[in-house]
Structure to design on (667 residues):
């Protein structure tokens, strides 16, 4: 049977996996399985497979979304978060049972969870308001109450007195703060263990002692407030006391207790390079109260900083301890790949699971024999593999998109590298049409990633495959500011947006325009978020592109600083100026040079994008219309910044059609 080209509607057939959790005995793996149903809803089911064969032994749906699964230390129970009742709550599945049992009934729902070492309790997060009493907090709203609350929110008057008051994909904050709770598995009684006006994250239970570690954010009422600044705390369940281990002048994430409970590993940085700062792996000794950086000499972006458009971003995962209590496993991003590394006291770090791909989340069994992980490559949207640490052998356990992939002909990107004026190497990829023929000159599209401190990776990108199938050469690269090429490279464009990064992207354009199979007179340009800041900047500084599409636009850095959910912070972190410096922010804004734009421009934006608010697109559109330039604006209702990855499916399909249609119109 002849294979066909990928179509925009194939997103409905695409499946994805996440959060693979191997049981303590290493025999069974539980993972989340994502797909779009016939009602255009995103569904997440749970699947349990055998380590030895990859055979599915159980697949179940407990509501629309089942996530954050974690095995009990004895391997008999599996806890997870489900929205079956309309609100995220903790449920658990007993060994040998096919029916999950609800554990929590929190009014404001649940996020995050971890087991106690004896398997009798779970720690979790749930939001608390100053005006809510205990009995209200532990009583789940019924369907009628949930419906009424949603209706009331539509006409709710908002009173705002915080610097950080909204978040893309979430909306405007109320006065509820995430607090740490503990629930008893037998009695189902919930106890709140943290108080105050600070938000909490990453609760984790000690493996041997009755202690809980968590991260506490700085109070928004503090003059020193910063969304990245946080503290590491520990709670003694017997003494019912908390104490601060590390104060809040740094970013702290993902604490993890050593097997003997005497140390805590975590990721941290001092924000010295703003949002480009590389996290380092640290270990805090609870007995000596000393902390040690395990990766001080490692110039690599720890975590998963790779981009794709078939799964949500999940950058930092908890470091995993070996059973010896001396060795730690973590992921790292380097030159377009995300791989798994390990490091031990007094030893160099080493790559354990390698390959040209993007590894997501991973877990390890109790005896440190196996690592199980989900991954994506340029030809595989997502699957689960297991790595035998003793045999140093990897086995792929799933092929969840086998039926779809067997029907498609996909493009395999070629990588290239160019030298910039600053002496660094810029990595890029070129994706040719699947039916590419020599002797023909093709139109090309340059894609620019967002962030900017992320990276294009050797992972599956539906949009790129779709445009290549439509007959375009798709070129994409990691200019300075990208992760994966060292701290200096990642920091290079801070305070210089439109400077060195513009040079890198023009050098990439020169490279692809010089290829004998590309028509340099038919070059297209597109990107999203920071990628569209650069798209807009490029259009105001050169006329070499035939057509362009801006998605999630940034056009005016001064107004962006005042309306974006994190604008006032990124103005300083990224531009190295405060929100007060109007002149400097305007100087670096594409809108300042709007008179120079001649390229036909399609502007696409989500109506509820709080990261790059709609007014950024509207400014660009009105200024171009006033000057009688060729432009059009498309606004997707009830959609946020992540439309291309997790937006309303018909809008995702329409978006792809509109992008290809605009380039077709002018090429």
């Amino acid at each position: 049977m002849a294979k066909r080209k990928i179509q925009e509607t194939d997103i409905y057939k695409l499946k994805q996996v996440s959060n693979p959790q191997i049981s303590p005995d290493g025999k069974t793996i539980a993972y989340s399985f994502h797909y779009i149903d016939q009602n255009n809803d995103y569904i997440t089911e749970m699947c349990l497979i055998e380590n030895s064969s990859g055979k599915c032994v159980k697949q179940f749906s407990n509501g629309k979304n089942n996530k954050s699964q974690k095995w009990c230390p004895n391997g008999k129970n599996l806890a997870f978060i489900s929205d079956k009742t309309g609100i995220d709550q903790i449920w658990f599945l007993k060994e040998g049972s096919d029916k999950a049992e609800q554990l929590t009934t929190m009014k404001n729902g649940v996020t995050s969870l971890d087991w106690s070492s004896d398997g009798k309790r779970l720690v979790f997060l749930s939001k608390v308001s100053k005006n809510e009493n205990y009995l209200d907090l532990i009583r789940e709203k019924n369907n009628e109450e949930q419906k009424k609350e949603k209706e009331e929110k539509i006409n709710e008057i908002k009173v705002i007195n915080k610097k950080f008051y909204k978040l893309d994909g979430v909306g405007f904050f109320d006065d509820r703060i995430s607090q740490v709770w503990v629930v008893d598995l037998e009695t189902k009684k919930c106890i709140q263990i943290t108080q105050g006006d600070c938000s909490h994250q990453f609760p984790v239970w000690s493996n041997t002692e009755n202690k809980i570690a968590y991260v506490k954010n700085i109070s928004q009422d503090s003059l020193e407030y910063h969304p990245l600044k946080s503290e590491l705390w520990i709670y003694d369940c017997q003494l019912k006391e908390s104490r601060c281990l590390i104060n809040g002048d740094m970013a702290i994430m993902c604490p993890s207790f050593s097997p003997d409970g005497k140390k805590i590993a975590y990721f941290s940085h001092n924000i010295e390079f703003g949002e480009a700062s590389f996290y380092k792996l640290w270990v805090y000794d609870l007995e000596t109260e000393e902390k040690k950086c395990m990766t001080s000499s490692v110039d690599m972006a720890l975590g998963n900083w790779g981009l794709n458009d078939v799964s949500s971003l999940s950058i930092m995962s908890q470091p995993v301890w070996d059973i010896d209590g001396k060795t730690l496993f973590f992921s790292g991003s380097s030159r377009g790949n995300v791989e798994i590394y390990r490091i031990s006291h007094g030893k160099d770090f080493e790559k354990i699971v390698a390959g040209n791909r993007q590894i997501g989340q991973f877990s390890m069994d109790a005896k440190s024999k196996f690592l199980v992980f989900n991954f994506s490559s340029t030809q595989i949207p997502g699957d689960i593999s297991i790595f035998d640490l003793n045999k140093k052998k990897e086995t792929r356990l799933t092929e969840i998109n086998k039926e779809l992939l067997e029907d498609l002909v996909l493009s395999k990107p070629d990588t290239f590298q160019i030298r910039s004026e600053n002496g660094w190497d810029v990595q890029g990829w070129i994706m040719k049409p699947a039916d590419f023929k020599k002797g023909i000159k093709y139109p090309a599209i340059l894609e620019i990633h967002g962030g900017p401190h992320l990276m294009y990776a050797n992972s599956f990108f539906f949009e790129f495959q779709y445009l290549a199938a439509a007959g375009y050469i798709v070129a994409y690269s990691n200019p300075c500011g990208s992760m994966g090429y060292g701290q200096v490279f990642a920091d290079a464009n801070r305070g210089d947006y439109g400077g060195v990064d513009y040079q890198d992207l023009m050098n990439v354009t020169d490279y692809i325009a010089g290829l004998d199979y590309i028509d340099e007179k038919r070059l297209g340009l597109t990107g999203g978020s920071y990628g569209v800041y650069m798209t807009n900047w490029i259009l105001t500084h050169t006329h070499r592109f035939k057509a362009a599409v801006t998605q999630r636009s940034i056009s005016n850095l001064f107004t962006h600083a005042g309306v974006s959910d994190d604008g006032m912070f990124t103005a300083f972190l990224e531009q190295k100026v405060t929100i007060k410096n109007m002149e400097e922010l305007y100087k670096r804004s594409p809108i300042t040079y709007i008179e120079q734009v001649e390229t036909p421009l399609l502007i696409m934006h989500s109506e509820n994008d709080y990261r790059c608010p709609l007014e950024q697109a509207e400014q660009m559109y009105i200024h171009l219309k006033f000057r009688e330039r060729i432009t059009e604006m498309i606004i997707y209702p009830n959609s946020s910044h992540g439309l291309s990855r997790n937006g309303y499916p018909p809008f995702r399909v329409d978006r792809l059609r509109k992008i290809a249609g605009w380039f077709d119109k002018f090429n």
In short: The longest strand covers residues 241-257.
